[in-house]
Write a structure and sequence with these properties.
The complex is a heterodimer.
Chain A (H helix, E strand, L loop, with lengths): L3 E4 L2 E3 L6 E7 L4 E2 L4 E2 L1 E6 L6 E5 L3 E2 L7 E6 L2 E6 L8 E7 L6 E2 L3 E4 L1
Chain B lengths: L2 E5 L3 E2 L5 E8 L7 E7 L6 E7 L4 E3 L7 E6 L4 E6 L8 E8 L5 E4 L3 E5 L1
Parallel strand pairs in B: 2-11
Antiparallel strand pairs in B: 1-3, 3-8, 4-5, 4-9, 5-6, 7-8, 9-10, 9-11
Classes of the chains: A mainly beta, B mainly beta.
């Protein structure tokens, strides 16, 4: 199974400041048949279902604010919130969908 | 626009079978995988498995002996059965669409299952 490791486990950021979350996979997530990297980021707010933010490591899902951005390739990835807003307080998870079983990182809690 | 809605008992006795259904409204069930994911209290997300529209399944190996996911495209739903539940199976259970190329792009609201 591909192991996904996020860091840090939690971080506190001032409103308007940048938040950076890292995710490392135990194998490359490059899906050779599509030449795409099958890495997604999700936001989980209390009482709400997870929301897809980023797919293919760097493509924002429709409707996601542009303060959210994803980067990285191969095995190392980053989710950046460029200017933290109060509504961004949540758990964030990376997930690989390159192969089965699909696996998630352990999550990163973002607080103000 | 595709929407998903979980249904099923919120309370299951230890050693019994947890059964949940996810209703799919809107869109097509073809070309996607239909997934179950859970989040135990205070923990992260655990992928449980998925079923394709043709009925092919793939399960988390940690659950393989207890889990069955099935699909009925004519009724536009897919289901989860987890046998011999224990306290550690208490969680919020989500159904989700695995679009295969874009990740888990549609989620149900989630349903809380207590084992007691």
């Amino acid at each position: 199974d591909i192991v996904m490791t996020q860091s840090p486990d939690s971080l506190a950021v001032s409103l308007g400041e940048r938040a950076t979350i890292n995710c490392k996979s135990s194998q490359s997530l490059l899906y050779t048949s599509s030449s795409k990297t099958h890495l997604a980021w999700y936001q989980l707010r209390p009482g709400q279902p997870p929301k897809l933010l980023i797919y293919w490591a760097s493509i924002r899902e429709s409707g996601v604010p542009d303060r959210f951005s994803g980067s990285g390739s191969g095995t190392d990835f980053t989710l950046t919130i460029s200017s933290l807003q109060a509504e961004d307080v949540a758990l964030y998870f990376c997930q690989q969908y390159s192969t089965t079983p699909r696996t998630f990182g352990q999550g990163t809690r973002v607080e103000i | 626009q595709v929407q998903l809605q979980e249904s099923g008992p919120g309370l299951v006795k230890p050693s019994e079978t947890l059964s949940l259904t996810c209703i799919v409204s809107g869109g097509t069930m073809s070309s996607h995988y239909w997934s179950w994911i859970r989040q135990p209290p205070g923990k992260g997300l655990e992928w449980m498995g998925y079923v394709s529209d043709s009925g092919n399944t793939n399960y988390n190996s940690s659950l393989k002996s207890r889990i069955t996911i099935s699909v009925d495209t004519s009724k536009r739903h897919f289901s989860l059965k987890l046998m011999s539940v224990v306290a550690a199976d208490a969680a919020v259970y989500y159904c989700a669409r695995d679009s295969r190329f874009y990740g888990l792009d549609v989620w149900g609201q989630g349903t809380t299952v207590i084992v007691s």
